[in-house]
């Protein structure tokens, strides 16, 4: 069991930046693939970014490549999402997720642990 708590969401103007953080507690954090997903009103939850156990392997959704950066600190049991050049369409609830899959991936089905989510609202 791993518990995930997100923070850092808020209201930001288009073009601005936000940094989300997710704190994990429970089992050994470095054993987990970590990821960020998001869900906008009326839409399905979608993949944003994932990071391997060592922090070297990273995957990004095409919609955020070049704007968002995922990172992790295994000593502090945290994973972060730096979001730059935010767009209106980035507005969503952002979720941190953990997986004990042997491989990094992008599907919701492979992630068995989820945080409660943090709201990100981008205004014009």
> What is the structural class?
mainly beta
Distance between the amino and carboxyl termini: 40 Å
Low-confidence stretches: none
How much beta, percentage-wise? Answer: over 45%
Q: Return the string of H and E elements.
A: EEEEEEEEEEE
Largest sheet: 7 strands, mixed
Enumerate how many helices there are, as a single number.
Answer: 0
Oligomer: single chain
Rounded to the nearest angstrom, the radius of gyration is 13 Å
Topology (elements, then pairings):
Elements: E1 2-7, E2 10-13, E3 18-26, E4 33-39, E5 46-51, E6 58-60, E7 68-73, E8 78-83, E9 92-99, E10 113-114, E11 118-123
Parallel strand pairs: 2-11
Antiparallel strand pairs: 1-3, 3-8, 4-5, 4-9, 5-6, 7-8, 9-10, 9-11
Description:
With 124 residues, the chain is mostly beta strands. 0% of the residues lie in helices and 51% in strands. It contains no helices and eleven strands. The strands form two sheets. Strands 2, 4, 5, 6, 9, 10 and 11 form a seven-stranded mixed beta sheet that branches. The chain is globular and about 40 Å long. The relative contact order is 0.32. The mean pLDDT is 96.
